[in-house]
Amino acid sequence: MAGIPSIANINRFNESISSSSLGLSLDLQFAADKTLTARKGPTPVLTRANATATFVGSDGLIQSAAVNQPRFDHDPVTRVCKGLLIEESRTNQSLRSEAIVDNIGWSLVNTTSVVSGTSPNGNSSYQISETTTSANHLLVNTGGNTVTAATSVVSGASYTGSIFVKKVVGSVDWVQLTFSFTGFGTSQFANFNISNGTVGNYSGLTSGTVPRIEEFPNGWYRCSITATATATTSSTSNIVLSFINNIDILTRFSSYPGSTLNSVLASLCQFEAGSFPTSYIPTVSSSLIRNADACSITGSNFTNFYNFTEGTMFVVFSGLMTTATGGNRGIASISDGTYTNNIQLVKSSGAANIGGDMTNTNPQFNFSQAGYVQGGTQKIACAFAANNAAFSFNGGISTDNTVVLPTTLTNLAFRDPTGVASGQPTGHIQSFRYFRKRLPDAKLITLTT
Predict the structure, then answer these.
(1) Residues 133 and 213: beta-carbon distance below 8 Å
(2) Is 178 domain-assigned?
(3) CA distance 390 to 348
(4) Taking residues 298-316, what's their average pLDDT?
């Protein structure tokens, strides 16, 4: 009937009244709106100096964002928006990451390569086939060529390699991913089933990490492993994709008489320092750096929404941040750029602190609750007033009654307060809200449940 408001409009009206009564002054809904523009309050500024970067678009395909442009990343299968993608700086050492030919950048060991099909970013992919030689059958990214050692690794550091692979109809299901024995020894490997998207046997990987296989449209999978370098060296290879006679073997490599009918499609190769894979970085004749994303609100825009006497931060995020190496990562911080004056939410089993660094050194308070799930969606809220602070993570609650709030705060940033590289988050900010009031504990629990 004309003139009667819809249920959706009534709900939005009620939410507006509720938010207003709670003092909502900043409302960023990145996943729902796919824009930096705030529903309420100032719009943050994002920078990514001198670097384009990739993300998954709403069609499930890999796309590129220009310098200083935000990336609203999507699940490649469900096409649901995950939110604003924020990543640390990474370098892809795999040269000619898409041009898989037996030339500079690649070595085909008892295999052949021919252009065939379309890769997950819309460019050409390559069909890699075994030869009939009785030996190993490998596809190797050399990071240079077979005589120039161009891939450098440091002993004790973790590195992640990834490559997109697709099953050729009627051909093999099982492939193996490993690294150069020069820098990583002979024990590390993982097997992947590119027919059903499962991980098989694996060994020798960085403690706390597991092989990953992520589904993409049109039968593609991104396979990745993380291993710790056993030597500081320069190698003539980094990622090795191996045929394994279509068997989930228990060892690294497999030697057997090959068949020209054994084939896979491959593309988009990456070798990066770090304990998890990040968004694809295309390379040609040299390694390429993707600089970190920086997203913040400063100056009068900050002081216009922020209340220096009390407030509440609430963030919903997901990410690949891991405890394997450098597990403490800033998610959102209000600060003056120092650890002395800051209020921050930290990925460290889900934590918050005032006046402490990302490892929670000498904070006024440090709230931490177990339950962080790598890659899963997390909800964190922190409410604060003089001698009255509380922290809620996924429905839990902790309180503190001895808090002195910092007064020289100047900015909100989605990172560690100082911008230190090891405190940079890597993941998706689905939404962020700031209230100018110290919300009741019960409300915090409701928000984060």
Answers:
(1) no
(2) yes
(3) 17
(4) 96
Residues 246 and 357 in one domain: no
**Domain count along the chain:** 2
Does a structural domain hold residue 12?
Answer: no
User: Does 237 share its domain with 358?
Assistant: no
Question: Is 11 a member of any domain?
Answer: no
In whole angstroms, what is the distance from residue 378 CA to residue 143 CA? 37
In this predicted model, what pLDDT tens digit does every residue of 182-193 receive, in sequence order? Answer: 999 999 999 999
What is the DSSP code (8-state) at residue 17? H
Q: Cα–Cα distances in Å, from 369 out to 348, 391, 393?
A: 9, 9, 7
User: CA separation (Å) from 138 to 148, 245, 251?
Assistant: 19, 12, 15
Q: How far apart are the first and last CA of the chain?
A: 37
Pair (101, 60) in one structural domain: no
What are the distances in angstroms from CA 323 to CA 111, 347, 395?
A: 38, 9, 22
- Domain boundary, last residue among 290, 314, 342: 290
Render the burial of 425-438: b for 16+ CB within 10 Å, e for the rest: bbbbbbbbbbbbbb
State how far the Cα of 162 lies from the Cα of 139, in Å rounded to an integer. 13
Of 36, 44, 39, 30, the closest CA to residue 73 belongs to: 30
Q: Which of 270, 290, 310 is the last residue of a domain?
A: 290
Convert the pLDDT of each residue in 16-25 to its tens digit: 445 667 899 9
Q: Which domain holds residue 313?
A: 21-88+292-448
On whether both 137 and 82 belong to a single domain, the answer is: no
Tens of pLDDT, residues 58-73: 999 999 999 999 999 9
Number of residues assigned to the chain: 449
Amino acid at 219: G
